[in-house]
Every structure is written in C-alpha cells, then in structure tokens.
Amino acid sequence: MSSPLPSSTPAPAPAATASVLDLASVVPVVVVEDAADAVPLARALVAGGLPAIEVTLRTPAARDALRAIAAEVPDAVVGAGTVITPGQVREVVAAGARFLVSPGWTDVLLESMRASGVPFLPGVSTVSEVVALLERGVREMKFFPARAAGGTAYLKAIAGPLPQARFCPTGGIGPDSAPDYLALPNVACVGGSWMLPADAVAARDWARVERLARAAADLSAGGAAR
Predict the structure, then answer these.
(1) What are the CA-CA distances from residue 180 to residues 110, 134, 149, 222 (Å)?
(2) Catalytic one among 54, 91, 140, 210?
(3) Pick the catalytic residue: 135, 142, 156, 210?
C-alpha cells in the first residue's frame, strides 16, 4: 500500500454527492494494478454510461489511481472501496474520493466516515448489523459478500421488517444476476467488476471495456444486458 499523500499536492475539492446509491444502477468495482491505466479505464467506463467508479484499496497503485481519476476525469464520480481505517478515510478524501465504501464497519470507522463529509456505504451481512446502523442513523449500506451472504433471497427476506434500509449488494454479482437484485425494493444499485475482465484490462482494450460498461448501464430491473 502506498505511503500517505504528500501535503504539497492536495487534490481539488470534490463536488457534492448526495447519495452513492442514486449515482447509477451499476457501480464498477475497480482493482488497479498499474496507475497508468486508471485514467483511460475511467474514461471508458464513463463513456459507457457508468460514472460512479469505486477504486478499491487493494493494490499499491490504488491511491495514485484514485488521485489521477479525480484530477483528469471530471465526469467520473470516483470513490474509494475497501476502506477499513480512519487513516485511509483521511487519505482518500484528500486524494479526491467523492464517496467511501467499506466491507464492514466499527463505531470508530463509522464516525470517521461520517466526519469526512462525503457519502459512505458501510458494509453489512447480517440483520443485527443492519439494525445497529439504523440505530446510528445510517440507512444506506453495502451488502457484502452478497452471493455468499444469501443473495437476493436474503435481501428479499429482510425487506419486510427493515424497509427503511437501502442496499448496494456487491460480491459475486454478474450481468445475469444483477437484474434480479435490482428488482428488489430495497436495492438501489449493485457493484461488480464483470465489465472489467482481466484480459481486456491487461491488453488495455478500452473499447471493449466501454462496450461492456454500456451493456451494464443498460441493465434494468427484471431485464438483461443487451
């Protein structure tokens, strides 16, 4: 993981983003191995109709990638995923992240994300975690790992007793299952990386990424990718 951002190169202040869940029906979950790929990759996603981009903090290149997208792709709404510490919250917001996504949450992490001033999606996989977040005034959440944690059946089951909670499921979702999630009343969007196949990224085939992004953007509740 890269070192903290140098104070001499502050990122431009991000524009306000009211809710992560309302940005797009599909949020690409991006793992960047080479920061040089970040800008063309983001431009391909935006051109395909997917402006909300989650850059996960899983590689040493992640922070540089996030910073580059924030600075050079103004039509992208770039956020940071796999955020698990208050230090990471501060670093990625300084780099230009306009939303935050965590795989889980603690009170310390939650308060740090809340204090950041940008929208955030804390991760949940149990009813108790959902109820605990509702008690703390948080209604928008990431459901992770979606398929392993029960998938659409689980989310459908908790929609009745917990209608105030809204979710972005991620984890094991593809173009065939995404419409089933989007058809649920408590699901506003889904996250996934199927529009970023490893071979296309390795070949820097951004035209293919754009085509797959466009197909993902065309997904609708009960429909299928064209």
Answers:
(1) 29, 25, 16, 6
(2) 54
(3) 142
